[in-house]
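[retry 2/3] UDP-N-acetylglucosamine transferase subunit ALG14: previous attempt timed out, resubmitting with same input.
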Amino acid sequence: MKKICFIASTGGHFDQLMMLKPIMDKYDSFIITEKTSYQAIKDNRKIYYLKQVNRHEKIFILKMLVNIINTLKIFLREKPDVVISTGALVTIPICIIAKIFRKKLIFIESFAKINSPTLTGKLLYKFADQFYVQWKDMLKIYPKAIYKGGYIEKVEKDMCFFAN
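[retry 2/3] UDP-N-acetylglucosamine transferase subunit ALG14: success.
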C-alpha cells in the first residue's frame, strides 16, 4: 500500500486538507502541519508539527532552516510515496524533498484564490505531478492545472493514479 504525506499550514489551508479525510482513510498516511497555540486536530493517524513560519518575521530564515531539517527527518523516517499539499509556506520544503527523491507531488491551490495565485502555488506549479485549481478562472494563471469544480471529493478518482 502506498504511503501518503498530507501537509498544510494552519487555518484555512489545514481545513481544506482535512476535507481529504476520505482519501486519508484509504491509505497509510500521516499529516504534517504547523504547531500553534490552537490545536483542534482530532485524528488517530500520525501528526507531525513544524514551527509556524511568517516570512515577515525577523527570525523567518532560522525557523525555515529548522523546519527544513525536521521535514527531511520526517520524510526519511516515513518514506512517503506521495505528498499532497494545500499550502502554504511551511509545505514548500517537503514538496521539494519529494521531487528530489522522485516521489509524486499533488498540490491543491487554495479555494480562497479565485483569480490570483498564491505564492506557494506559483513556486510549486512547475514541480507538481498534479496541480488542482478550484475555480475555472484560475486556468488562465495555471493553464496546465486540473479543474474539477468545487472541492476535493470530485478529484479523488484523479488522485488515485498513484494507488496502483
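[retry 2/3] UDP-N-acetylglucosamine transferase subunit ALG14: The mean pLDDT is 88.
[retry 2/3] clearing retry counter.
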